[in-house]
Amino acid sequence: MSDDDGPGERALRQVLEAQDDARDQVAFRNSAEGRLRVIAVVSQFWPLIGGAENQARRLATELVRQGLELEVWTARLDRRWPRFEVLDGVTVRRLGSAWSLWGRLRRLARYSFLLSLLVRLLGHRRRYDLVHVHQVLDAAAVAALAGRLARRPVIARVSSTGSTSDLVVSGRGLGITRFLARRLLTRIVAVNAQAAAECRSWGYRAERIVCIPNGVTVSPVSPSRGHDQEPEVLYVGGLRREKHVDLILEAWRAANCPGRLTIVGDGPEGERLRRLATAADPRVRFLGQVPDARSFFERSDIFVLASDAEGMSNALLEAMASGCACLATWVGGNTDALGPECDEPPLGGFAQGAAGLLVRVGDVPGLAAALSALASSWELRRSLGEAARRRCLARFRVEQVAGAYRLLYGTLVADGSAPRDPGLEPPTSGRAQDRLPR
C-alpha cells in the first residue's frame, strides 16, 4: 500500500482529472491560435535545491513570461508535496507516488514517476507540442520513447561533462537509457563546447546537437564593493567529492589570505569538511543549504570553484552576474564562461581569462596562488568582476537563453520534427575534451 490509497487521495485525483479535462480544452484552443505548448520534465524540482532544479525553474519562469504555455512535470518524492501548484506563474505537476514511509521502498517513487510520465505523455498528447527534458537520464529516455509514439519532438539538455556527465551516468548498467536517448531524441542540447564534443563521441551527429548555455538573472545594478576592507571569499554548491571543497580549504590555508571564507551548501562530504575546516582555521564558516544565495554573492568579493567536472555552473554564473572576481578550474563550462581564449594554466600557477582566473584540476598550489593574487589586489578583483558581469550581460542572460530555446522549439514544431531518424554515428574512441571545437 502506498500513501496514495484512501478516500482523500482518490477525491483529489478526481478533482485533478477534471482540471486536466478543462486544460485539454484550453490547450486545444491555444494550439489552434498558434501558441506553443511545452512540457518541461525534470526529475527533481523545488523544494529541492540544486543546479538542474534552479536552472529548470529559472528558464521555465522566463519562457512563461515570454508567452509560452509551459508546464513542469516532476517526481513527487515526498507525500507532503502538493501534486499541483503554481510557482512564479509556472504550473508544476508532480507525478508518481511518494514512498516516504517505506524506507528502502522510497526508490520505487522514481519508477512510479517514470511510469506516470510515460502514461501521461501518451494520454495527453493533445496538450503539448514539444517536450523539453532537463538532464539526459532516465526521464529523457522515457520521454523520447513517448515522443516517438506520440509523434512529438523531444529535446534533452546535457547538464554536466566529464566524470559526472549525463552521458556517462546514463550508460551505467545495461546502458538502456543512453541507447534509447541516442536513438529517439530529436535534439540534444549541449551547455558548453566540451559537452558538444562528448555528444559527438557518444554517437550523436553534429546536426542533432544544439549549443545553448545556461542562463542567469542579471540585476540592472551591480553591487558596490569597498576596497578598504578584507575580502570575502565564497563557495556555493554541493559538498560532494567531485566539487573538491577540501582542496579549497587546503589552498585557503596555504595562501594565508586576509578575510573570511564562507561555504554555502550541503552534501555527503559536509561533516568531514566541517571537521577539517574547524581544526584548521576559525575564519572559515559553513552555513549549510540556503533557499536563495543571491545575498551572499552580492556581499562577496571572490568566488572560488574547484570542481573536477562541470556542465555550466549556476553558482559561477550567479557570481559573475553579481560582479564577483571568479576563480575556477579549467573544465567544462568554467572555461567557456571565464576564458575560452586563454591557454591552459601552468601547473602551480593560474591563467587569466577574459572574465576570471583559471587553474588546473587538483592543483592546490595553483589555487593558492590565484587566491593570494585576488586577495591582495582590489584593482584585480574590480577589473575581473566588471568583466565577468559584462560577459554575463552579453552571453548568459536568461532572457537570451530563453529566446534561443523558443527559436529551437518553434523550428522543430514548424518542421514537424517528430523523432523519426536521429541520425547516429558509432561512438568514437578517445577523450571528448581532446576534440573540442576550435
Order of helices and strands: HEHEEEHEHEHHEHEEHEHEHEHEHEEHHH
- Major β-sheet profile: 8 strands, mixed
Question: Helix- and strand-based class?
Answer: alpha/beta
Total strand count, please?
15
Gyration radius (Cα, Å) is: 22 Å
Care to describe what's here?
- The chain is α/β, with parallel strands linked by helices and 438 residues long.
- 42% of the residues lie in helices and 16% in strands.
- It is built from 15 helices and 15 strands.
- It has helices at residues 7-32, 51-65, 108-123, 138-150, 166-169, 176-184, 193-201, 245-255, 270-280, 294-299, 314-321, 332-338, 364-376, 378-396, 398-414, and strands at residues 37-41, 69-75, 84-87, 90-95, 130-134, 154-158, 187-190, 209-211, 232-236, 260-264, 284-288, 302-305, 325-329, 351-352, 357-359.
- An eight-stranded mixed beta sheet has the order 3-4-2-1-5-6-7-8, with helices on both faces. It has a seven-stranded mixed beta sheet with strand order 11-10-9-12-13-15-14, sandwiched between helices.
- Helix 9 (270-280) links the parallel strand 10 and strand 11 (284-288).
- Helix 8 crosses helix 13 (364-376) and helix 11 packs across helix 14.
- It is globular and about 60 Å long.
